[in-house]
Design goal:
Structural class: alpha+beta
Number of helices: 17
Radius of gyration: 35 Å
Mean pLDDT: 89
Strand order of the largest sheet: 15-21-14-20-18-19
């Protein structure tokens, strides 16, 4: 047909087609649906593929734009399950003494003050406080609309009832000595005042003690307070409240469930439910963590660290004010009364070897009980350097010679008397870490000619049979420092006997004076000089062999987030100091 049309006529036809096409509108949906009828198989495939690519491109572009312009933030919900070693008995802030009880108390009770994730003291139930010029009167104002978990109001009367209960000897509270000489009175409905006999700078830290509800406890006789069900199913005012527990056929508590308290006076927690499972030992607990039966464990002992799968478990290394040392008791061995002999013992111990072989390097060697990160820490203060040769010379100068036959040093006891053999007894608790330490020390002391007998004491007997009666010559043990009370309870001569915590049964008037100055100082700057003097005198007299400050390893699965703020803990329970910031769920919000 085209061949029959002249060129001029063909131009007219083309022009008409262009005009018709320019008048056409976009095809309707009904027309588009008819398109497959006019396409062959190959054209259908190409069109479908092109549409898929187009949709994916739009989706990817939209998702990237969403991610770029939004941020992930914690969301409320989810659950976290942690393993604890032991079982709850007294979930009560004025009676608790075990780590398990203190962990649950931390979550369910509030004090007038609290520690945040950085170890700083901040108001809790209190909205604020004032301290008089003499540093002996503390006045606290409670927050408005405080509520117990049973929705009853929290009042000043609850605070007074709690302090009076602690001081009541019938309660047998382990906190009784901390509140000795302190009176408390009601000023008005929301104001309470404490009066001290003399200034005591760590007083605010004592007020982190949880408050108990008077309306539930007033009818419980003090002498039977430890027997009430409120100690297992408590009512507090903390970020989490008790929900339920389950027991095994023998009546032992196996599971414990808490839920976020919606009327909490501070920002509410993100994780809606906390579950706790209780295990008899760390071997069982670590196995449960590795098998994902729990999401975290109270603590990871050093001996389990190497076998832990780091791809599944996050190990949070927290600063912990604990140190292990060898404490001297000259009352049970007169040799220890001589500071030069104590120095010889110290110089023969290789701390670096202990740190490497016992802790796998998870910690740091120390020279004094003032640990890195604590007020008064001075890295320039040094204990005698490790030197077995100098230690041997020191022993010889003290009259202890190596005999021609035998492995241990002796000293002439006089005419018709057998020579005295140089020997000492080294005691510790039956824990793998401590047993390794005393074996290394025994080896070191015997290499310089000191016969060393080991005494390994069970966990059940160490406190009653050894520590409380100070029944040891040299004790290798770990002490946890209260960072706010300072070194006074651990080194002042008044604390040499139970219930004092001074395990080196030595006394020095200069050390006592420096510790008393620290105790009454109003500001940190005033504590620095006496703290330095205290440490220098401690090193001069060789009051103990300070070995190491371990790292506290808190293992959790990657499921748990929000622990970044947590750096320093005073007690294991303090790992919950920033529990309100923990989360397991997230949501995205558009950023500005």
């Amino acid at each position: 047909i085209k061949n029959r049309i002249s060129p001029a006529a063909q131009d007219d036809v083309n022009q008409q087609l262009i005009l018709q096409l320019s008048d056409k509108k976009i095809p309707s949906w009904s027309q588009i649906k008819q398109m497959p009828k006019f396409l062959n198989r190959a054209e259908k495939f190409n069109l479908s593929f092109a549409l898929i690519i187009f949709v994916l491109a739009i989706g990817i572009f939209g998702w990237r734009a969403y991610i770029k312009n939004s941020v992930a933030v914690p969301a409320f919900g989810g659950s976290y399950t942690e393993g604890l070693i032991g079982a709850p008995h007294l979930v009560n802030p004025i009676l608790s003494s075990s780590d398990v009880d203190r962990d649950l108390v931390k979550l369910m009770f509030s004090g007038l003050m609290k520690f945040n994730g950085h170890g700083e003291l901040i108001p809790d139930l209190a909205s604020g406080y004032t301290i008089d010029a003499e540093q002996t009167t503390y006045t606290f104002e409670l927050r408005e609309n405080l509520r117990w978990h049973d929705n009853e109001p929290i009042t000043v009367d609850d605070v007074i009832f709690t302090i009076d209960s602690i001081k009541n000897p019938d309660y047998n509270s382990p906190l009784k000595n901390s509140f000795s000489g302190i009176t408390v009175q009601r000023i008005n409905d929301r104001t309470v005042q404490f009066t001290l006999e003399k200034p005591f700078s760590p007083f605010l830290s004592i007020l982190t003690t949880g408050i108990i509800p008077e309306h539930l406890w007033y009818s419980v006789p003090a002498f039977s307070a430890s027997l009430t069900d409120l100690n297992i199913k408590p009512v507090g005012s903390g970020p989490y409240s008790f929900v339920k527990l389950t027991r095994d056929t023998n009546g032992n508590i196996k599971n414990y469930t808490l839920e976020a308290y919606e009327n909490y006076h501070l920002p509410s927690a993100y994780i809606s439910e906390l579950n706790f499972k209780f295990y008899p030992d760390f071997l069982t607990g670590v196995s449960a963590l590795e098998n994902k039966n729990i999401d975290g464990l109270i603590y990871l002992p050093k001996e389990f660290k190497q076998d832990m799968d780091s791809d599944k478990i996050t190990l949070h290394n927290l600063q912990f004010p604990q140190f292990t040392a060898a404490f001297f008791n000259p009352k049970n061995n007169e040799l220890l009364s001589d500071k030069d002999f104590r120095q010889a013992l110290a110089m023969s111990v290789d701390k670096e070897r202990i740190l490497t072989e016992v802790l796998n390097g998870d910690g740091q060697t120390i020279n004094t009980p003032i640990l890195p990160g604590l007020l008064g820490y001075d890295p320039e203060l040094r204990a005698p350097e490790y030197s077995p040769d100098l230690a041997s010379i020191a022993l010889e100068e003290l009259g202890w010679e190596m005999p021609e036959e035998g492995s241990f040093r002796t000293k002439d006891a006089g005419e018709d008397e057998d020579p005295l053999e140089l020997k000492i007894k080294l005691t510790t608790i039956d824990q793998s870490e401590n047993v390794k330490i005393v074996n290394i020390i025994k080896e070191a002391w015997e290499e310089i000619g000191i016969k060393t007998d080991l005494e390994i004491v069970s966990k059940e007997k160490i406190k009653k049979d050894i520590i409380e009666p100070r029944n040891y010559e040299v004790l290798v043990f770990g002490e946890v420092i209260n960072i706010n009370s300072g070194p006074y309870p651990f080194w002042h001569s008044s604390q040499n006997q139970h219930p004092g915590l001074n395990l080196s049964v030595l006394a020095n008037k200069d050390i006592d004076k420096y510790l008393e100055e620290v105790r009454v100082a109003n500001i940190d700057d005033d504590k620095l000089e006496p703290l330095k003097n205290f440490q220098e005198k401690l090193l001069e007299l060789n009051f103990a062999i300070f070995l190491y400050n371990p790292t506290y390893i808190y293992p959790t699965t990657d499921k748990l987030q929000g622990l970044d703020e947590l750096q320093f803990i005073n007690l294991p329970a303090d790992r919950f100091n920033n529990v309100n910031s923990w989360f397991v769920k997230t949501k995205r919000i558009f950023s500005r």
